[in-house]
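Sample pair:
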Amino acid sequence: MIEFPNHSRSYDRTRRAVRFWGYDSAMEASFFVDEGALRRLQPDTRPDESGFLTAFDSNRERICAAAARLYVRGSRGSYDLVAANF
């Protein structure tokens, strides 16, 4: 089971997504939630790094729940969440 105890997150300009991490025992997985998904969750999101991080923080529970549904143990190192995941 994946858990999200680390509240660190960062904006990745290249991927145009907020990156965060989940842990399954000692295994770490990276997750990226793209700008489109953040706008779906919070339509009034400002289109800049601060706005996307704020949208992520405001919707962390929903984002982590969607990430947990997408996660498959040992499958891959990173996962992308897009608007369709919400």
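The mean pLDDT is 95.
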